[in-house]
Write a structure and sequence with these properties.
Blueprint lengths: L13 H15 L1 H4 L5 E6 L4 H16 L5 E6 L1 H4 L22 H14 L7 H14 L6 E4 L10 H12 L5 E4 L11
Parallel strand pairs: 1-2, 3-4
Length: 189
């Protein structure tokens, strides 16, 4: 999941497929081959028939790509609820009373950034929630692959971008941030 824009990514987009390929290559290396288990976490809002179909579709894709992995559904609606928490956009914005913050500008910036898949400033509470969710799932994890959002077009946001990545990866096992550019998988020979 692209944790910056969860609505723009799927388990079948270029970056997710690239992460699967990288993890598969790692699991094929001799020291890891018999000891490693590749786990793919499917973040969902609620476990329902649609989520079960999505998991089945993901399992079929993994089989087609000859990727030996376990899929696990993770309910994360409590974390996504923090995404639009305008009372704490970030540490510095939290000092500005909520009624003085411009929600129109934020909404426009978010929409524009989402369509260009560019980084936007998201609140620390949400990022910490994502980090906690990941930490709860990564017992005995040797390597973790996470979606790397595009860097901000506005260079003034670069320190904030790095801060978000730092919060996201805090106290996690070794993390490899991945950003795919073009398709790297094929199911036809």
């Amino acid at each position: 999941v692209n944790f910056i824009f969860p609505e723009t990514s799927t388990q079948f987009d270029v970056t997710c497929l690239y992460m699967l390929q990288l993890a598969t290559i790692l699991s094929m290396v001799k020291p890891w081959k018999n000891r490693a288990t590749l786990r793919v976490f499917l973040c969902i809002d609620a476990i329902n028939d649609n989520a079960l179909r999505t998991q089945q579709h993901l399992d079929e894709l993994l089989s087609q790509l000859r990727i030996n992995a376990q899929t696990r559904m993770i309910a994360w609606e409590n974390v996504t609820g923090l995404l639009n928490n305008t009372s704490t956009i970030n540490d510095s914005a939290a000092t500005i009373p909520v009624e003085q913050q411009s929600t129109t500008t934020t909404t426009t910036a978010t929409t524009t950034a989402a369509t260009t898949n560019s980084f936007i400033d998201i609140n620390d509470v949400y990022v910490r929630g994502v980090n906690e969710l990941i930490r709860q799932q990564c017992d005995n994890t040797s390597c973790l692959y996470l979606y790397l959002p595009r860097p901000p077009k506005d260079r003034n946001l670069s320190p904030r971008y790095m801060r978000v990545l730092d919060i996201l990866s805090n106290d996690l096992p070794p993390v490899m941030f991945v950003h795919g550019v073009s398709s790297v998988t094929c199911t036809q020979l």
